[in-house]
Amino acid sequence: MKRGDGQKVGLTTTIPVEIVFAAGKVPVDLNNRFITNPQKESFLAKAEAIGFPRNTCGWIKGIYGVTLAEGITEMVAVTQGDCSNTHALMEVLQTAGVRIFPFAYPYDQDRHLLALQIERMMEHFGVTQEEVREAKETLDRVRGKVHEIDRLTWQEGVVTGNENHLFLVSTSDMNGDWQAFEGEADRFLAEATGRRPLADGVRLGYLGVPPIFTDLYDCLEELGGRVVFNELQRQFSMPFTTDDIVEQYRQFTYPYSFFIRLEDIKEEIRRRGIDGLIHYCQSFCFRQVQDIILRQEIKLPILTIEGDRPAPVDARTRLRLESFVEMLRYRGQGWIYG
To answer: CA-to-CA distance for 230 and 237, rounded, in angstroms?
Structure first.
């Protein structure tokens, strides 16, 4: 990948990051940068102070705050296939001097429309198809190492749900430095492969956007649950093999119909031997409504939890998680519960 000016480019969600790297820019997944920042609560306060409504998604307010704090001057904003509030966020950030490049995933996975979006983005960043192809080969190699970390989670049982989550979610921007990220993955794999398997626990699948709770995975493991499937985080890692970048982002399930996500969820439930599902919904998000379809289509116990602002799991949610894990444990032992 060519040397560039090292300028940061903010991302509102997963986009064809190969193009940003090929241009010599530094991609910054603003969601990851927000939730890992010790000052994250101040970002929400800053957004609310200028007029963001209280009932706006915490991630949107966090992205606004961290964009200004990080000095981001250019952003790729996904206008279709992610959060409906992104449109207003873009406009507010434009008034603050941030240049916005809009990117839209076609709802029905239309290949022609997606190809046009990718071509527009390549033209915007001034890169060729060959440069993007080379970047894709490099990033796919790194992704393959993260896929192995995922396999060690559900098949070998030597990686925790939180470690799995962190590596998978970081593939959206490779932490801005794919070489350093690859080195981190290599070191982790060398250490994890020498571990003893973790204690058996209730095998859980985590569905939905990454949690705004700061300690959800630790909480579940304390209660005897093990997350062996992080649905959307896995999708950010591009788990399907293809040499075609358009097809790669066509197979990426998150931006499209919920029924496309369901196909992948059902397959991974079967493959990973899932006992029950945690469905995380962000407060004030339209995706909460999809819980109706999930419960109609999936014949497994499902616990739906909701988060609003970055904080540890609250007492009420912890009690619900504890009851759910206990119920699954009794169910797995053939007991009649309740």
So the answer is: 11
